[in-house]
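pipeline/complex-builder :: batch 7 item 3
reading input block
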Amino acid sequence: MIDIAWSQFTPGTALTGGLLIGLAAASFLLLNGRIAGISGILGGLLTPARQDILWRVAFLAGLIGAPVIWTLVGNLPPIQVEAGYPALIVAGFLVGIGTRYGSGCTSGHGVCGLSRLSVRSLVATLSFMATAFVTVFVIRHVIGA
Amino acid sequence: MKYNLLSLLAGLLFGAGLIVSGLANPAKVLGFLDIAGQWDPSLAFVMGGAILVGLFAFAVARKRTLSFLGFTMRLPTNKHIEPRLVVGSMLFGLGWGIAGFCPGPALLALGAGEIKAVVFVASMVAGMMAFEMIERRKRSSGGELRGYQKN
């Protein structure tokens, strides 16, 4: 049986935030003609074509600067990282190499790819979602049980 | 100039969406990924909201070769489902499940000054560099062509 954590459930802000993410991806697509895929934008900086450097840096600066600007007008919601440092190092490396081999992450495949009805992105999204669900299950209920 | 400014604004808006939605918080992400525990389905609404807007945007974009500002429309063309797509995505899912960070929220948490995000992002960039090095070695030894796209 699925046990829903009603006290944690925040459909309103989740939907609002989702719409904002969608608007960001939509504006980037319709104005600049590009897919807002974070792993691709970051990874492309490692072997950049010269005309590609500035817009990539600009997008990432916006993303990294968002919480800074947020704190000027309000309180930033908590960012709680439960994983320890060894786990974070392993996980970061896996996310880095995995998103490059898989050509995308939650934004590029999950949001943009599904929005353009790409079968390739659907396969990628199902692959990383399923693996993430299994991973959390194993960590919390098999190892941690 | 306009192009870069709009990139900056798109990044800001994207970041605001991550903050508002709760996706910026790994604990919230893991609460969503933990179906067998106390399940928090909120993040399904984030994806739903984003895709709702995205569907309209891509329906418009699909019919165009130039953006509304006259820039080339760069949509992915690769339709192949290769092993690397699946294996790469699974490695990503493994890392995502361990830490609760995917690339966007990790960069945002870095901007928020979270030390653990600094470590995660450094390792993530190392993983991306490893990919580039492996691929470069493959190419220089006459290996297969790169089948991935930059998106």
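note: The radius of gyration of chain A is 17 Å.
queue -> next item
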